[in-house]
Amino acid sequence: MSKVAFVFPGQGAHKVGMGRAAFDETEQGRAAFDAADAALGESLSGLCFEGPEESLMLTANAQPAILTTSIALLRGLGEQPDVTAGHSLGEYSAHVAAGTLAFEDAVRLVRKRGQYMQEAVPVGQGAMAAVLGGEVAAIEAACAEIDGVVQPVNYNCPGQLVIAGEKAAVAAAGEAIGALGAKVRSLPVSAPFHSALMQPAEVRFAEDLKAASFSDPSVPVYVNVDTEPVSSGDVARDCLIRQVSRPVRWEQSIARMIAEGVGLFVEIGPGKVLSGMIRRIDKGAARVNVEAPKDFEAARSAIAEARG
Asked: Is 213 an active-site residue?
């Protein structure tokens, strides 16, 4: 018998039309989108289903949109995890799944999170780049030698890192890393997420998180910043505060979950990015995706099989 982990995607997974099938085909999905619309006082559902894409792509909209799509699918699926985790923004979906945060509170929080992160660095001054290949230590060392702010911010899987910071520093680090033989690709993002430049956003957002109601999670939530399972609402809040300006250690989190008995990962939400990362972390780890109600049956079968 294996543990079953539910994992939730972060920003970048969004696309116009996401969540529409969950809304149309399940009562739980419709209720989730209706609750999100009410929590924000606007039609987030309309933005998810119809766009326009340029509005959905804005950080302050993309974050609650992905969260809501993920929770609509989770509730339609109707299964419970043994443990859970999420990539960056996805950690909020994980906490809703574990009962740490009420869904409506999480929707309002991630709207503010997106606003603060966008406002922390003027558009055009920050940058992010994906690094494919290369040794982690060499990439970290190359960043450390650059004048200005640049650092690894996403440890996604073997052979895939993301660096972020000041635009010129990221460009310089990219050249240095490229000279080591790795491929560096700039990412079309609006801010240098999870870098030290997000400190102003962290300070602002900490006040909102401190005012929010956190419960102890019903199942362990493996957090990005420490790669450890948390079982306390107060610890969960602290981890979410620190997450804003610190790296997402996804590879280390997944490896630890596998070492601690997880045999099946169920990715719930738009896209299949996390499943691809998990495959690169451990080819033997079983994976299943839930992007729409048509995926429910296969996911339920995989969960039943994993639990024997």
From this structure: no
